[in-house]
Design goal:
heterodimer; A: mainly alpha
Chain lengths: 100, 716
């Protein structure tokens, strides 16, 4: 396996994540898309550290990324709960109070 | 230390001492012992002045008029091609003046610690003294007329503050206003004179390559009249400040201030600033302006001396005596003797400060507190009882130090020969007037010499009258006499130091060696003998030498004649005084009997004040005020009213219409509605949906990435 293969996987994951974030009508699904994007980045870090720099810096950053994703999920879910309390829905199309 | 840093120290010390008081007052806290701070500051300045004087003795270049123009020159104001520079001028005249001012000021500070003790405004008094010292020193070291003018006005303000120091007293409040306004009359003339010089030479710096004096020496004879007028106008400032006739009336009234102030400001230093200015402007004097100065000086000398004969207030006698002596100094400068004028200034500063401090000591001794007032100490003729010589007598037994020191000063001012400094300086003045007359000057100088001689006799007379009335005879007011006591040491020591300085320590020969007279390029220009002198000078060196010797001989003879005459008149004056005042008992004023109606004129000071009040203030000033008031009310206000009417009725209507139609109708509608329409369109992109925003952000990123990839390689 070469570096390119990892990067292809990463691109696919990233694109799927972006697609989910932009198109899903459910906030939980958007969160899942965000997780995909984060993980594609982690994959990149690990791949580059293994093939190019040949030390553990990238892997360390990937670990930080995973922890960050967990924290982010917690914040995101609590925001979703608040949104549900306010709008009785978690469809992002219906939370358009800021519409000009 | 260099000259500039010493001068800086001299200026800064008193300034800091006075500003400290100002800041502490702003903060609402009094510094402890403002008196010690101020006294220490002026003593440091005194030490620095002595160091500077040492430099003069070691450096002959500094004895030249103009001395060195130190490198401490800064551009102060520069407006296009107008430049005002500020710098220090340091020569032997500056050095002598610095010592006179700092020395007298130091002694007055020390004296005031005793004299002003217990005054409710005690700290403020010292802060004012410091501010005054700074202003006076600034005036002395400035190398340009603008700096001198700034210092000049500052000392005027300090004089105002200190005369009105006891401002609860109505007479003091009136006196300080009078002093300020009267001197201002002269200052207007001085300012016009400065502007004349500035208009012609584009500078106010005195010495140096680009200075006024260099430029003046290149003026042709057609400018002599112009130069005379400028010189006389600048001298007007000195008339005001040095209390010369006809603006002398403020100085006697200034005696309402505390006595140490009278000694420092109104005897030794500030009033001498006028003499200093005239001496500084010496090189621009022409025959016309010299004669004007000499006449003003001569008239003032005799005018004030005669008034002094009939005064009963001890301080007023000294005040008129000061006016008279300042007239002598002006006479010397007008007679072309720079050195004699400054010499008399120096000796006078010491003995007159001593006389004032001595009178302060007497007043301090006799001062009866107001709660134990009795019928013996009522005011007569508006004179406070402790200043009235009719209440004194026999005080030499009670106040020995005051008596002996004041006697020395009196002998000095009266011109008692040889062992007192006043004799030498007065002789120098008299000799200069006679020398000028004898060496081919105008015939007027004979008259001026005679006037000065009579004034010298009157001076000896009234000064001994003061001594006899105060210290000799029997006490005229037993209660005050019992109460009298010698002053504390802080007051006695300055008296003793000044008494030592009244002996010829500063003598004529050292002074002539120290100070060199500057050239007066136009002094002969318009007189008949000018061509003769120039021809003589051009003939040959040998002839010139003989001519110079001849001039020297004449001056020598003149001084000898003047010396003999002055000894005779001084003796006459003292004898007359002894005959009239020293014999017992004195029932009524012998002078009053002898002079008859003339006494009334003298008692009313030649009615100058009445003239000013009755004619100038009431008639001219009030008349002009009425006329200007009428113009103001009818014409100026009328124009204003018409313009206002036009504005209100016509222009306001047009503007209102314009406002309604153009602004409201077009501008507001078009601009407002247009922007609203644009807003309606633009608000659509603000959907409020997070995913739309994200999509826009993402497309932005993609566009940026594509741009970067397609850009040429010069982007790093």
């Amino acid at each position: 396996m070469r570096l390119e293969h990892y990067l292809y996987i990463s691109i696919i994951l990233f694109s799927l994540g972006v697609f989910a974030v932009l198109t899903r009508r459910n906030a939980i699904s958007i969160l899942m898309g965000v997780e995909l994007i984060l993980n594609s980045c982690n994959l990149n870090f690990v791949a580059f550290s293994s093939f190019i720099t040949r030390d553990i810096t990238g892997q360390m950053i990937a670990l930080f990324g995973i922890v960050l994703a967990a924290a982010e999920a917690a914040v995101f879910l609590s925001i979703i709960l608040s949104i549900y309390n306010e709008f009785s829905s978690i469809n992002p199309d219906q939370t358009d109070t800021l519409k000009g | 230390m260099s000259v500039a840093s010493l001068i800086f120290t001299i200026l800064l010390c008193p300034l800091v001492a006075s500003t400290l008081f100002g800041f502490s007052a702003l903060l609402g806290k009094r510094l402890p012992r403002q008196d010690l701070i101020s006294t220490a500051a002026i003593l440091v300045a005194l030490v620095c002045s002595l160091l500077l004087f040492g430099q003069i003795l070691g450096n002959p270049a500094l004895k030249q008029p103009g001395g060195i123009v130190d490198s401490m020159v800064i551009d102060w104001i520069a407006i296009s091609d107008l430049e005002f520079k500020m710098g220090f001028l340091f020569d032997s005249v500056t050095g002598v003046m610095l010592i006179v001012v700092t020395l007298v000021s130091s002694l007055v500070h020390i004296f005031s610690m005793g004299y002003m003790h217990g005054d409710p405004y005690y700290p403020r008094f010292f802060a004012f003294l410091s501010l005054f010292s700074f202003s006076m020193l600034f005036l002395i070291v400035s190398d340009n007329l603008l700096g001198i003018y700034i210092g000049w006005e500052l000392v005027g303000v300090c004089s105002y503050l200190l005369i009105g120091f006891w401002f609860e007293k109505e007479s003091a409040a009136d006196a300080c206003k009078k002093a300020f306004l009267t001197t201002r009359v002269g200052d207007v003339g001085m300012f016009v004179g400065m502007m004349m010089l500035f208009a012609k030479f584009k500078t106010l710096v005195l010495y140096g390559e680009e200075g006024i004096f260099e430029a003046v020496s290149h003026l042709g004879s057609e400018d002599i009249l112009w130069l005379s007028v400028a010189g006389c106008l600048i001298f007007c400032g000195a008339i005001g400040k040095s209390a010369q006739f006809p603006l002398h009336t403020w100085l006697p009234d200034a005696m309402e201030g505390p006595t140490p102030v009278s000694a420092l400001i109104h005897a030794a230093t500030m009033v001498a600033a006028g003499v200093y200015l005239t001496a500084r402007m010496f090189p621009i004097l022409t025959p016309g302006s010299s004669l004007f100065i000499a006449y003003i000086g001569g008239i003032t000398a005799i005018f004030a001396a005669t008034i002094a004969i009939v005064r009963w207030d001890i301080k007023r006698v000294l005040a008129y005596s000061t006016v008279s002596q300042l007239g002598y100094m002006m006479l010397a400068i007008g007679s072309g003797s720079y050195v004699a004028g400054l010499f008399h200034l120096t000796t006078h500063a010491f003995f007159k400060a001593l006389l004032f401090l001595g009178s302060g000591s007497v007043i301090h001794a006799l001062h009866v507190h107001h709660d134990d007032h009795s019928e013996h100490s009522i005011e007569r003729d508006g004179i406070p009882p402790e200043q009235d010589m009719r209440n004194m007598g026999g005080l030499r037994r009670k106040l020995p130090i005051t008596f002996w020191t004041m006697l020395i000063a009196t002998l000095s001012i009266s011109g008692v020969p040889f062992i007192f400094s006043g004799f030498w300086s007065k002789d120098a003045v008299l000799g200069s007037a006679l020398g000028k007359a004898m060496s081919g000057g105008s015939i007027h100088y004979y008259l001026l010499f005679a006037i000065a001689l009579i004034a010298a006799m009157i001076t000896a007379f009234y000064m001994f009258r003061l001594i006899f009335l105060t210290f000799f005879g029997e006490p005229k007011n037993q209660e005050m006499y019992e109460h009298a006591h010698e002053s504390p040491m802080s007051m006695a020591i300055p008296l003793i130091i000044l008494a030592i300085l009244s002996f010829p320590i500063v003598n004529k020969w050292s002074f002539e060696d120290l100070i060199m007279q500057p050239d007066q390029p136009h002094i002969h220009a318009s007189t008949q003998q000018a061509s003769a002198l120039y021809a003589e000078a051009g003939a040959s060196d040998h002839d010139t030498h003989i001519a110079g010797d001849h001039q020297g001989d004449i001056h020598h003879t003149a001084h000898n004649i003047a010396m003999v005459c002055s000894i005779i008149v001084a003796t006459l004056g003292i004898l007359l005084s002894w005959l009239l005042y020293a014999r017992q008992p004195m029932t009524e004023d012998p002078v009053e009997k002898a002079l008859g109606p003339f006494h009334t004129i003298l008692w009313n000071k030649y009615y100058v004040d009445e003239f000013y009040n009755g004619v100038i203030v009431k008639r001219i000033t009030l008349g002009l005020s009425n006329i200007f008031g009428w113009i103001d009310f009818r014409i100026v206000d009328g124009i204003v009213n018409v313009v206002a009417f036009i504005n209100r009725e016509i222009i306001a209507g047009i503007v209102g219409l314009f406002d309604m139609i153009v602004i409201d109708g077009i501008v507001v509608t078009v601009v407002g509605k247009g922007i609203r329409a644009i807003g309606v369109q633009i608000r659509r992109i603000q959907t409020g949906t997070v995913q739309n925003y994200l999509a826009v952000v993402l497309s932005g990123i993609i566009i940026l990435v594509l741009l970067f990839l397609s850009l040429p390689r010069w982007i790093p």
